[in-house]
Amino acid sequence: MIDLTTLEGKDTEGKVRQLCHKAAHLHHGFPDLPNVAAICVYPTFVKLAKSLVADKGIKVASVATAFPSGQSFPKYKIDETKEAVAEGADEIDMVISRGRFHQGDYAYVFDEISAVKEACGKARLKVILETGEIGNLDAVYFASQMAISAGADFIKTSTGKINPAATMPVTLVMLEAIRDHYYETGKMVGMKPAGGISNAKLALHYLIMVKETLGEAWLTNEWFRFGASSLANDLLKQLVKQETGIYQSANYFALD
Amino acid sequence: MAKTTKNTSWDLSPAPESTGHVTIDKRYDLFIDGKFVPPATKKYFKTINPATEETLSEIALAGEKDVDKAVKAARKAYDTTWSKISAAERGKYIYRIARLLQERAREFAVIESLDGGKPIRESRDVDVPLAAAHFFYHAGWADKLDYAFANSSPTSIGVVGQIIPWNFPLLMAAWKIAPALACGNTVVLKPAETTSLTALKLAELIRDAGLPDGVVNIVTGAGDTGKALVNHPDVNKIAFTGSTDVGKMIRRSLAGTSTRLTLELGGKAANIVFEDAAIDQAVEGIVNGIYFNQGHVCCAGSRLFVEESVADEVIRKLKHRMNNLIVGDPMDKNTDVGAINSKDQLLTIEKYLKAGEKDGYEMFQSQVAVPKKGYWCRPTLFTNVSQSSIISKEEIFGPVLAMQTFRTIDEVIDKANNTPYGLSAGVWTDKGSKIFNLTTRLKAGVVWANTFNKFDPTSPFGGYKESGFGREGGVHGLSAYLNLQG
Amino acid sequence: MANKKTTSPEGIAVMKTYKLFIGGAFPRTESGRFYPIRNGSDELIANVCLSSRKDFRNAVVAARKAQAGWEAKSAYNRSQIIYRIAEMLQQREELFVKEMKDLGYTDINAKEEFSASVDYLVHFAGWCDKYVQVFSSVNPVASSHFNFSVPEPMGVVAAFASNKTALLGFLESFVPAICGGNTAIVLASEDLPTCAISMAEVLATSDVPGGTVNVLTGNRKELMSHFSSHMDVNGFVIWDAETAASIEIGESASENVKRVKFYESEDSAVLSPHRIMDLQEIKTTWHPIESISGSGSGY
């Protein structure tokens, strides 16, 4: 359920290649380990990533809409989305306009999400609320409802670029919004907490929260993802420890 | 909810708390005058683990002679040492108790769960830390009592007799012993007969703290032991926490005497959810209010009142939440709801469940599996109950919630107050002015607004009407253990 | 290898360098200056730092940084930390008694003052979660409002410790401040500074967050105007001031309406919650109590 991510100003083709390799070869000691759910990159790397992972059952997610700030003209955000999809993105991770949200322009925020959803075509849309900038839990719930009504396939906590990123309270509120929507309409929406979940134990806490709030049907990568980069290695360390009973060192798990 | 498509098992793995580091002796004697001494009755009774029905230990049965010995020891300690040392020194002894309890926290938590049935997560995270905090807070009052009561020349009372219940054994011991000692009194304490172990361990700890002999004495036993303590002529004050029936008996016994008395008895608290409440959080508060500690809580929110316009939503969410509560082995860290404390209590609860069904109310119980041995009751909800039904009126003392709808503020306040009890109440609304409207008019000693079952040594606790009189904790709680002039 | 002893009669002991205590660390004075403390036999006890206004400036920054976190701790937590200081101090009686004797104390006076210091800490540890109850109120206003008044810490408090004692006076200069959620910068006694620095070492091992208490050594006269004029210091406490000083302090403190308190070791009650309240503000809050039938009284 991990989206392996690289979203840095200094990303290069080389970096993306290495990440794609890792996505499909997590650890030589566990050949049967499933691959990650997706690779998440900037739009200009979608084509390359797709060529490397599509045949491995790994999806390519692209950020779009002037990630991470969202502060740009609507036309460019829609065009960016369309191009990323044209290059082969299976999923689009968009950001909402937090500035407009704080101005009270809720109709603008809603319409923007709808337009991006339309531009996605067949690609699934994840809507990033950037909860660290939203500021309070009531507003997070409201933004969640808005994103879901506007067509989000997934709602996502954060860009991972600011603190606080994902936290358990914010995630719980978003899961509750998804649950309430399900009760009203019968439709499932996915959830992705991103940023700050760097160890397996914490990830387990989140999974239990999903299980108790939404139920086991959501515990697949079709409806739940962790947006994480260092989580994968910690998971591998824990798996090895579970098998051998010995505490592990980072030296034995590839850093890429 | 939607059906599962994969066949991965998402059950929680067992997470057992380790118990190997804990010692429970085969047999415990009475703690009198700084030593463990065998009872004059020569009798012992068993204490069992209600989750497994296994015997944990044998506890001494104190008779009248034993109680008399204990009171004499307390009197001697009061006259010769405890009232003679400086107040600051008294405080320093009590600080030692607090710190030693913090050092041995895990051991006490494990024993509390084994002996009483409450989940280890609760004894570890709530009972033991609060007990230590109680000692710590009160230690600091010992040399500051002049500030607590202005112009009142506070002085100690003498020997106090204290009888505590089985629902929070160690915490109740702390609530009683800490203020008594801080105010300069000496103590004879009788724990509940199903949960004596942590009180006896506390006695060992008090000995390690170096408290002078006789300042704290523990006499174990059942109703008769308590009676002997209440009726002893040289006890200056009685403090009792337990059932309303026994509280009334004690009050009758002490009629006409000069023995001071405080009572903390039962309750049937109203937990009120308004339409403008944060509903998901209100649901957590409802669950906490009645299923925490298996509902063995005097201030449990056992009568749920939901504004009719949101009743369906609240009930739906509540049932969903109840289905996720894990009932089982108290020593497993995943457990939310532990074992019922005794067979007797389980029979009492089942009696009320039958009565509720007989009255025709819809009963919902979570579908969780429970172990074969031990005493268990699944979290239960009766919906659309009426004010006059027995399950709305009488204290069940189990994980059983009776729910009614209401329409206006005046209506729900009247119904909430329409009870001989008055220990606590809960109010759930996001509107501040409404909160204070309710809190000013609810006849309860503790009102929780947008929260429930919160305790702190600084916060006074106690009831109105048949829930008892007197307060424990905070400045107000000290007065029960002092003579105040002026 | 031959048996290595740390302080054998034949071997020489390692002399302690007495530094300042700022932000939880022990830096030297940025000025590089010192002044010597010698004992009755004219032996050098310590070259103590002669702090500069820049050291004070840095200490204020550290104290301000630590203040929000210290205030945000529960009163119970602060209470436990101050009790922990007493726990850590109690074990070090021998060290402190020796230091006091080097400063001219008799054995009996040193032991008495040490014992009183431990008890002083225990006493104030017990105030942290109680002074609020004693000095707060719910006010029965004549309108339909819930109205309550509570004390709140001022923020950053600077202090001149008494020059009359080595240890107890030092504690008296800041414990009430931190008890009440303030953070502090203390200038230790000029003539008896060494115990204050050793006490800072005790603070450093007592779970006291860095910056909560900062300790400088040096010259009162030189630092007075900086302590009293600093715009980011909320309170200033002076023990046993010289008469002329009080005028100068009062005037320069006016710039930011700093709260100034003068205490005399002879008169001022030390084991008193009023020492805490001297460094608190009072906040009163109102909230309406709704009443459909019309207005009513408050609580």
Report on the architecture of this protein.
The complex is a heterotrimer of chains A (256), B (486) and C (299). Chain A has helices at 13-24, 46-53, 74-86, 98-103, 106-120, 131-134, 137-149, 168-185, 200-213, 231-244, and strands at residues 2-5, 38-41, 59-63, 91-95, 124-128, 154-156, 190-192, 226-228. In chain A, helix 1 runs parallel beside helix 2 and helix 7 packs parallel to helix 8. Chain A has one domain (2-252): Aldolase class I (TIM Barrel), CATH 3.20.20.70. Chain A contains 10 helices and 8 strands. Chain B folds into 2 domains: 27-265 and 465-483, Aldehyde Dehydrogenase, Chain A, domain 1; 270-449, Aldehyde Dehydrogenase, Chain A, domain 2, CATH 3.40.309. In chain B, 38% of the residues lie in helices and 17% in strands. Chain B contains 16 helices and 20 strands. A 7-stranded mixed beta sheet of chain B has the order 14-15-16-13-12-17-18, with helices on both faces. In chain B, strands 9-8-7-10-11-19 form a 6-stranded mixed beta sheet, with helices on both faces. The termini of chain B are far apart. By secondary structure, chain C is of the alpha/beta class. Chain C has a single domain (2-7, 17-288), classed as Aldehyde Dehydrogenase, Chain A, domain 1 (3-Layer(aba) Sandwich). In chain C, strand 6 (183-187), helix 7 (194-204) and strand 7 (213-216) form a beta-alpha-beta unit. The longest helix of chain C has 20 residues, at 53-72. Chain C is globular. Classes of the chains: A alpha/beta (256), B alpha/beta (486), C alpha/beta (299). Chains B and C meet through helix 2, helix 4 and helix 15 of B and helix 2 and helix 4 of C.
Strand content of chain A: 5-15%
How far the N terminus sits from the C terminus of chain B, by CA atoms, comes to 65 Å
Q: How many structural domains does the protein architecture of chain A include?
A: 1
The largest sheet of chain A is:
8 strands, parallel
Uncertain runs of chain B: 1-6
Number of strands of chain A: 8
* SSE order of chain A: EHEHEHEHHEHHEHEHEH
Number of helices of chain A: 10
- What CATH calls the topology of chain A is TIM Barrel
- As a whole number of angstroms, the C-alpha radius of gyration of chain A is 18 Å
Residue windows where pLDDT falls under 50 for at least 5 positions of chain A: none
CATH topology of the largest domain in chain B: Aldehyde Dehydrogenase, Chain A, domain 1
List the chains of the largest interface with their residue counts: B-C, 28 and 25 residues
Query: What is the distance, rounded to the nearest whole angstrom, between the alpha carbons of the first and last residues of chain A?
Result: 19 Å
Structural class of chain A: alpha/beta
State the assembly state of the protein chains: heterotrimer
Query: Tally the helices of chain B: what do you get?
Result: 16
Largest sheet, spatial ordering of strands of chain A: 7-6-5-4-3-2-1-8
**Fraction in beta strands of chain B:** 15-25%
Q: What is the average of the pLDDT values of chain B? A: 96
